[in-house]
Each structure stands twice: as structure tokens, then as C-alpha cells.
Inverse folding.
């Protein structure tokens, strides 16, 4: 990708007297957009309303940006020529993409993502809902920056770096458990024109569905950050019983068997069995007496978490040979450790009945809001549509949607996915008559 092409925007150049680089402008536009601020009220693993004990999507995104930037700087220092040969590498691009990578997450996180997907498919929207594709849609079509165009008008390089799964939804086999194209994708059909601006830059990239180098770095930074920090969060909260897991060999063996049963990658499955003792050592290095003596243990916990992140940053390198992760070489041992930490959180927290009962109620909120806004769109009840969608001739657009059910459904999904969790609960309570609210409430 040529440097001039990397920095190109769809709708025009920045201000002529602006001394920032194009990628610094991208980063700043993302930081100041409404969708980014909203992430403070969106679930990472547990509800954002639980307080500062746990990460929310905003604090998570800030840490992904920090890890991604440091990794990009390290790789650029180590292999500047190779980075250029592999398409270019700019730390500002990686940081911008990291800040943006979770913008598409709906309220209540993955449980709402699945619910919105089911509802969209049920109403004949063939590419359903996917948080990564919603991110691309926000950046290119939904967010507000200037009155003359939709989206933030970011550079090609930054938009490319946000594409974890740079392809459209595979319409056949959506439920195929081993097909990442069926499960994950970064672009909806409705955003094809925007994707074609971003992706077809060279003949090689037109036929390639691999991440750019910058996207691979962002993706890895995301994996590292939520693996280490989510584990730390729930260990501190007392939800991960490390001591009993390590002292009970049978419990650890059962955990390993459960985990490997759900792993489809043959190499990784073999590595799980071959490196069980190494994985156990990682857990033993955590301060196991944290609950008994948190004041003394916390500095050791922070130091160990920081050391893990540094270890993972230094484990990867740039490679000319495109592989599973594009131009980023991720050792199997690193993959194993990251997935190990993720699996512990999954088994002890995500599958915890206390969390799954919350999920049931959250699905009901999403269902009710979706049905309400879809009906408002179908009946052209414009006063029920949130104000942030009433721009650029939205009411005129509704007149052209009456015979286009997929677009009606897509807009209803856009509205629900744009809510914070507080907005979602407040609106749900109002619709059910649980809480009338006030006529002075400003519904954005």
C-alpha cells in the first residue's frame, strides 16, 4: 500500500493548517466521538454498573491502545525495513484502531450481540449482527463528524487496521462452529461501498482476506489485554479460586479436559496436553494469598501482570511469510498461555449462575427495545426515534424504507446497539410502565 494511498480519506483532506499527521487526526476523531464515550457504560465481562472493580469497554479499549502502541513502536524499532515491506506500520494507526475496536459492542456485551444477531436473522436480515461489523459501520456511516458526510472519514490505513475479519458474512453455515468466516466478519452487505474504498488498494489486497500488519498488532494487543486484565479482575474479586485449583490435581485435570474438548486447532490441543505443567507454573506465580492479605499482595500482582504483558509483547515479531495472523508471527506458546487465562475466566466467571441469570434479563431488555424501534420505523413514528439518528434527512429516508424490510431491521439494530446500558434499562422500564420517567428527560 503506497503511503499516499494509506493516508487517503474518502471525503477529503483535513484542515490545511493542521499540523497533525493524518493518523493523529484519526486517533483524535475517535477519542472525541460519541460512540467512544459511550463505552464507559458497556459491559466488558460483567455489567459496567458493577463499578470500578472491573474493566468496562472504555477502560479496556484504553489499555488495548497502550499495549498496541508500545508493541508497534517495538516492532518498528526492531524491523523498520520489514515493516515497510509488509505494508507499512505507524503507531498512531495501531492506537487509533485499538481505541475504535470495540465501538460496535452493544449494551450488555456478547449476550446482547447474540440476541441481536438472532433477532436480525429471524427478521430476514441475512448478515445478522456482529460487533466487529458494527464497529466498521459506526466509523464509516453512523458516527457524526461533519454535516456534509456520514461517519468519521478516517484514512484507509486506520479503517483497514480496525478490520479483524476483513470479509463479509458467509451466508451459508452461520452456525458452523469451526468456520470463523461464518462466526466472525467485519463488514455488512449494506456497507459494501465503504469497504471497497478501504480494501481494494492493490491487486494483492483485492484477493486477500488477511489482516494488515497494523490490524494484526491491534488484534494481538486486544487478546493480551483482556486475557491478563480480565483474569486479574476476577482473581482480585475472589471469583477465581487459584489456590484450590492448584492444590487439587484432579480439579486441574478436569479443567484441562474441559478446555481441550472445546479446542478445534489440532496443534493447540496437543500443546495443551504437552505443556500442562508449564501452565500450572504460571498460576503458581500469582500471589496465592491475595484474599488473606490483599494490601501486601496487590503490588506483587500488579508486577506479575505487567511482566506477563511485557513477555507477550516481546514474544511476537514481523514476518514476510503471511500466515494465520497476517504479517505478525505469534508463537504457539503465547497463544496457549493467552487462551489458558481466557478459559479460566470463562469456566469460573462467564458460566457462573450469578452471571447467567443476569444474561436472561438482559436478553429480554434487548428483545423489547428491538421490537419497539422496529415498529416505530415501520409506522414512521419519528418522535420515538432517538435524536442522534434524526439527521441528514432521516425522516425522508423512512418513506423509502416501507418496502425494504432488511433496511428497516438494520436501522432498528443500529438504534438498540447504540445504547449505553443505563439508557437501555431506563428505556425498558419506561416502556413497561415500571418507571414513567419524566417529560423533562432528554432522550438522545
Amino acid at each position: 500500500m503506497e503511503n499516499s494511498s494509506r493516508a487517503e480519506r474518502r471525503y477529503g483532506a483535513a484542515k490545511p493548517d493542521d499540523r497533525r499527521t493524518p493518523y493523529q487526526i484519526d486517533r483524535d476523531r475517535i477519542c472525541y466521538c460519541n460512540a467512544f464515550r459511550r463505552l464507559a457504560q458497556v459491559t466488558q465481562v460483567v455489567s459496567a454498573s458493577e463499578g470500578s472493580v472491573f474493566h468496562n469497554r472504555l477502560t479496556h479499549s484504553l489499555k488495548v491502545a497502550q499495549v498496541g502502541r508500545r508493541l508497534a513502536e517495538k516492532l518498528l524499532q526492531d524491523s523498520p525495513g520489514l515493516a515497510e515491506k509488509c505494508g507499512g506500520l505507524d503507531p498512531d494507526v495501531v492506537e487509533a484502531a485499538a481505541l475504535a475496536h470495540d465501538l460496535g459492542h452493544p449494551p450488555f456485551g456478547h449476550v446482547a450481540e447474540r440476541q441481536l444477531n438472532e433477532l436480525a436473522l429471524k427478521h430476514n436480515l441475512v448478515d445478522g449482527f456482529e460487533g466487529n461489523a458494527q464497529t466498521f459501520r459506526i466509523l464509516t456511516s453512523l458516527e457524526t463528524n461533519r454535516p456534509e458526510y456520514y461517519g468519521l472519514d478516517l484514512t484507509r490505513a486506520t479503517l483497514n487496521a480496525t478490520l479483524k475479519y476483513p470479509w463479509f458474512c458467509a451466508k451459508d453455515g452461520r452456525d458452523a462452529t469451526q468456520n470463523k468466516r461464518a462466526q466472525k466478519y467485519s463488514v455488512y452487505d449494506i456497507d459494501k461501498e465503504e469497504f471497497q474504498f478501504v480494501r481494494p488498494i492493490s491487486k494483492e489486497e483485492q484477493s486477500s482476506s488477511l489482516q494488515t500488519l497494523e490490524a494484526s498488532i491491534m488484534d494481538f494487543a486486544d487478546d493480551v489485554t483482556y486475557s491478563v486484565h480480565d483474569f486479574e479482575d476476577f482473581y482480585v474479586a475472589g471469583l477465581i479460586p487459584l489456590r484450590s485449583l492448584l492444590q487439587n490435581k484432579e480439579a486441574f485435570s478436569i479443567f484441562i479436559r474441559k478446555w481441550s474438548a472445546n479446542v478445534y486447532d489440532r496443534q493447540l490441543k496437543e500443546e495443551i496436553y504437552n505443556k500442562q505443567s508449564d501452565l500450572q507454573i504460571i498460576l503458581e506465580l500469582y500471589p496465592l494469598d491475595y484474599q488473606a492479605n490483599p494490601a501486601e499482595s496487590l503490588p506483587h500482582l500488579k508486577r506479575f501482570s505487567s511482566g506477563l504483558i511485557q513477555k507477550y509483547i516481546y514474544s511476537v515479531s514481523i514476518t514476510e511469510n503471511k500466515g494465520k495472523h497476517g504479517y505478525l508471527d505469534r508463537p504457539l506458546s503465547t497463544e496457549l498461555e493467552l487462551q489458558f487465562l481466557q478459559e479460566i475466566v470463562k469456566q469460573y466467571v462467564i458460566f457462573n449462575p450469578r452471571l447467567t441469570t443476569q444474561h436472561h434479563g438482559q436478553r429480554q431488555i434487548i428483545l423489547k427495545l428491538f421490537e419497539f424501534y422496529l415498529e416505530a420505523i415501520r409506522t414512521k413514528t419519528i418522535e420515538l426515534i432517538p435524536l442522534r439518528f434524526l439527521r441528514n434527512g432521516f425522516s425522508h429516508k423512512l418513506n423509502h424504507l416501507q418496502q425494504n424490510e432488511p433496511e428497516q431491521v438494520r436501522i432498528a439494530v443500529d438504534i438498540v446497539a447504540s445504547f449505553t446500558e443505563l439508557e437501555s434499562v431506563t428505556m425498558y422500564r419506561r416502556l413497561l410502565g415500571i418507571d414513567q420517567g419524566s417529560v423533562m428527560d432528554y432522550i438522545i
